Amino acid sequence: MQTLYRAFRPDTFDKVVGQDNIVHILKNQVQTDTVRHAYLFHGTRGTGKTSCAKILARAVNCLQPKDGNPCNECENCRAILEESTMDVTEMDAASNRRIDDIRDLREKVKYLPGQLKKKVVIIDEAHMITNEGFNALLKTLEEPPAHLLFILATTEMEKIPQTIVSRCQIFTFRRIAAEDIQKNLRYVLEQVNRGAEPEALETIAYAADGAMRDALSSLEQVLSVAEGDITLRDVQTVTGRVSAAQLFALSDAVFAKNAKQALLTVQAVRAAGKESESILADLTEHFRKLILTKVTKDRRLFSGSDEQFSLYTDKSAAPDEELLLAALSHLLDTQNKLRFTDDAHTLLITAVLSLCALAKKKTLEQRIHELEEYVFVRGKPAAAVGTGPVPAKDPDPTDAVGTDPVPAKDPDPTDAVGTGPVPAEDPEPTPAPASDAGGDSITARDWEKILENIKRRSVPTYAYLHEGKWHSFANDRLTIVFPDNYEIHRNAVNKKDSRALIEEETKRLYGAPVDIQFLLDKEREDKKPVADVQDIIDYFGADHVELQ
């Protein structure tokens, strides 16, 4: 019995899935007798390169072509399908790559075809040919006989010399859309009188990553173990994929900083027969989808169903963008380490615990911002915190050092510096009304609001500016500090247009012009301590504070 991908290989251009542009051009060339002497088909595996090469070989030799398609019934088509003609040669370059193999081929193709209209040479995995072999092939491609057609297929076109590429008509085979793969899988199941849950076919289609052959191979494996209609559980059992519910349970535990629950979820997934390598790969893809929907919210960039897109959009709303990005980066680094270890399970456990630590670290940064706001407001004069002028306070007898009231002292003329009357002091200016910032200060939280407003007006400016952190605000001067290795970002926001936008949004929130300075960390003055050590320990907890 033939495998599914061979039994259902397309035998006409019209049956090729997902390559409409290529099929349209090839059919027109066959109909108008303008077929080139050499073609180069390149693209990822399982997208129809070899199938189109076989169909083209029959189409150019067909005695009764139908709209550019081979009839598959005439003498020539049957001879090619049955592989009983010497005029069509299929060669695997992975095993026939030497210069002697190419020389033998060159000797065979120079003679006229014995049965067909054209001799056709199909070279699969063409990038495997040696440089010497390509040089031997070059002469034939430069001056091809009229009866010869070359079709080269490859997944790595960059390895083929430009001298060969320039003499071929190039067709790029794209990954097949998951929806097209699902449609073809349903057709195959109808032909074998089997059914399947929509979620099962959807999982197979998206796991194939655009390769129809991979999808059909997976379907064949599932059919061999499923009893009756194919279920999602059957697919997950055969392919080793982690279910979406398990992935969300794991990420929810990470976002909740619950390391125990995260490890229990990993244990449950492994108990269901999933390998650590597969869990890590699926978890990485899971976080990729989360950050993608968090940042773009664009259905076109999401590889999944509409229902999955909605679910990922909801789940990605709460986590911070920086946390998701850091988690994805850490998972990618962990996958790279798989090549250098035999203990994938320990690596997986370490990765999950690291993700929980990342979530906790982010929370600690937020607490630092809150502490900065708290310390700043507590250290301001009373007039700065209120919303209007502060009334004069009557003297409090308890403020005196002694217990008896101090009698008023008669004025002493000798206390005066001059001999004339002392001029009255200028009255203290009345504080300005409070702005939307909640006072005459700009806190770290206010700075986040300013960043959001800037993001809506200019994404490039925001991209540079958000790398800086609120440092301090005093005397109408706002200080933003960038890490030392972000000097490019600091210089970018100091440019005229960017700075004008930042100052405008700051003034809008504060209610008055603000002097903004952008510093690198090494340029700022060391901050003076503004809180007692015990206050810091009480706020952060002793486990987060180290005394030196």
Structure characterization notes:
- By secondary structure, this protein is of the alpha/beta class.
- It has four domains: 4-173, Rossmann fold; 178-239, Helicase, Ruva Protein, domain 3 (Orthogonal Bundle); 244-360, Zinc Finger, Delta Prime, domain 3 (Up-down Bundle), CATH 1.20.272.10; 444-523, DnaA, N-terminal domain (GMP Synthetase, Chain A, domain 3), CATH 3.30.300.
- It contains 23 helices and eight strands.
- A five-stranded parallel β-sheet has the order 2-3-4-1-5, with helices on one face.
- The chain is elongated.
- The relative contact order is 0.06.
Structural descriptors:
4 domains; Rossmann fold; single chain; 3-stranded mixed sheet; alpha/beta; 8 strands; 548 residues; Zinc Finger, Delta Prime, domain 3; Helicase, Ruva Protein, domain 3
Structural class: alpha/beta
Q: What's the count of strands?
A: 8
CATH architecture of the largest domain: 3-Layer(aba) Sandwich
Largest sheet: 5 strands, parallel
State the distance separating the first and last CA atoms.
Answer: 76 Å
| CATH homologous superfamily heading of the largest domain | P-loop containing nucleotide triphosphate hydrolases
Per DSSP, the total helix count is 23
Helix content: 40-55%
Supply Rg: 37 Å
Poorly predicted ranges: 379-438
Residues in β-strands, percent: 5-15%
Strand order of the largest sheet: 2-3-4-1-5
| CATH C-level label of the largest domain | Alpha Beta
Number of domains: 4
What's the overall average pLDDT, rounded?
Answer: 81
Quaternary organisation:
single chain
Tell me, what's the shape? elongated
CATH topology of the largest domain, anyone? Rossmann fold
